[in-house]
Design a protein that fits this description.
With 50 residues, this protein is an all-alpha fold. It has one helix and no strands.
Length: 50
Amino acid sequence: MDFGPYAPFIAGSYGFAALVLGALILNGWWDGRTQRLALAELQDDRGGRP
């Protein structure tokens, strides 16, 4: 497959998209972890589930 003179632009675009998707996945994982810890703390303050 020959991309000609556009190969650096195409490769850079795919690289940037992969970087953004990776950052979104990492952010979702980190936020989910934070929310689970906050929920556990709130449930401990109330004495567990009602």
